[in-house]
Amino acid sequence: MGKENLILITMDAVRPDHLSCYGYDKIRTSNIDLISEEGALFEECICSSCLTPVSHASILTGNNPPTHRVRHPFCKVGSKMISEILKENGYKTAGFVGINFLSSQHGFNAGFDYFDEPTEESSWNRKEYRKGEKKMNTLWGNWWVDRMLQWFKECHSANFFIWGHYFEVHFLAEKYLLSTGEIESGKLHEHAYYDAKIKYMDEKLFGPLINILKDLKLWENTTIVVTSDHGEKLGPRYPSWEDFYTNYPQHKTMYDYDLKVPLIIKNKRLGKRKRVKQTVRAIDLVPTLLDLLDISISDKFDGESLMPLIHGEKFHELTAYAEELYEERGEGSLQAIRTSEHKLIRNITKNTEKLYNLRKDPKEKENVINTSDAKEKILLQKFRETMDIFLQGYETETTFTEEEKIKIEDRLRALGYIG
Q1: Cα torsion through 128, 399, 51, 302, rounded to 10
Q2: Cβ atoms of residues 174 and 249 within 8 Å
Q3: pTM for the whole thing?
């Protein structure tokens, strides 16, 4: 039997509780549902950061931020990505990204034969920003779906790996989709058309993707992964312009609405309609995929293969680590440690901590840091020690020039990440 193909779709800012395969009933994401029926759906997956480049580096390397060294917007990927591993194993590789922060400048093109990133021609929005005498065009979005389908037609005879980062669910994308008539004004307009954007993605990306795989007789021999880089703080159902674009959604926290993401793996060897309830992590994806594809390498990962868990074997509890150390963006430099039962959130800038018992308080409303029992106090100390270890050697200096830093800051400001 030949090698299996692999497609990884990372959706930007998509919460699992807004997909119908996770039980959402306001819209039907029928194509994502179909993928979920052909494999395993993980009910509780935790990402490594609420910041896109940091989280994506973890998804693509199987490592935590201290290992892959992407810890703020001015970093470059510092450990081997799955694209490089698969290329070394004979795969033809193509990457398609929807925003500058996942560009070749940041090292996300490593291992790709073809890499499609935003340009002046392909981006759907651009705006000039000035800083002193310097000026730049910030590029928003990159509708790569049609080019990906064309790449399929031309290159499908070889075993392939495709990574597609879909940006058009992110806030501000609704302005583009409304202006072009892709989504209907006034329909599914809650939370600035959040559901409308997800439904559009399901129809315009996942529908054609499934169709072309079946038309080319590649469906059975192609593994498909669907996940997201982070969640979203949706805020009011009908936010004012100022409220939405200033305060919501900003995915700037370590709470579950920003860190919990969908994870679906379709593969013919996994069986059908499997649901995994145990907490897993985004860093577990790469070792799981290499295990699934029968690719052995000497590299070590922070993540672990989830194959035993998928097959129903007894599996130890996993501890998830997340961070957002770019303090200019939100309330400060943040860290979080999470198990299925507890979460510790630390604000390094403000020197504060919050401990939540997730079993009793899944919405993270009651900070029990001062009322924890004896077992929680022991756990709390372990969490603190892990956070301290992960901060050791943290380097705030960057490999970018001052001019490059100004451009990156302008992009962050244009997207609402910083003020």
Answers
A1: 160
A2: no
A3: 0.92
